[in-house]
Amino acid sequence: MYKAMLLSCMDPRFQPIVFNYLTYKKKMKGKYSSFVIAGGAIGVTSNKFRKWHKTFWDNLATSIKIHKIKKLIVVNHKDCGAAKIISKKNLSNKQEIEIHKKSFKVLRKKFKKKYPSLIVEFNLIDLKGRIKKFN
């Protein structure tokens, strides 16, 4: 049975990194379901993408019910197009990280309210493929 759900971005540059991270580093092959959307956490928290939010929450509720999900693993990445869209400008490294942190904070707050027993893990991939935790 599945134990986790992955929320990640659709950017093809990072798909192999995310797969390898979960499959080999976290040893979760066959133990997670995926929800892939532009911007990852940004896509499901920013008002710019409000129409997408319900789809995420409905999918999560279904995954919890069917797959007995106990944990959400969020993986955002640097050089994020969604972050650029919501900022409407070129971003410095620090500004982009703040956008990711804000999306993580909003998502954590909503999870505490809707699913207080669910574990949430936040990660950010840099352009060299390194993954940093934000918990």
**Oligomer status:** single chain
Derived structural class? alpha/beta
Give helix and strand order, one letter per element, not per position.
EHEHEHHEE
Largest sheet, spatial ordering of strands: 2-1-3-4-5
Principal-axes geometry comes out as globular
The portion of residues forming beta strands comes to 15-25%
Distance between the terminal alpha carbons, to the nearest Å? 26 Å
Question: How would you sum up this structure, described in words?
Answer:
- Helix 1 (15-25) links the parallel strand 1 and strand 2 (32-36).
- The longest helix has 22 residues, at 93-114.
- This protein has a five-stranded mixed β-sheet.
- The chain has four helices and five strands, in the order E-H-E-H-E-H-H-E-E.
- It has 135 residues and is of the alpha/beta class.
- 43% of the residues lie in helices and 20% in strands.
- The chain starts with a strand and ends with a strand.
- It is globular and about 40 Å long.
- It has helices at 15-25, 50-67, 81-87, 93-114, and strands at 4-8, 32-36, 71-77, 119-125, 131-133.
Question: Notable features of this structure?
Answer:
4 helices, 5-stranded mixed β-sheet, 135 residues
Blueprint of the fold:
Elements (H helix, E strand, L loop, with lengths): L3 E5 L6 H11 L6 E5 L13 H18 L3 E7 L3 H7 L5 H22 L4 E7 L5 E3 L2
Parallel strand pairs: 1-2, 1-3, 3-4
Antiparallel strand pairs: 4-5
Quick summary of this structure?
With 135 residues, this protein is an alpha/beta fold. The chain has four helices and five strands; from the N terminus they run βαβαβααββ.
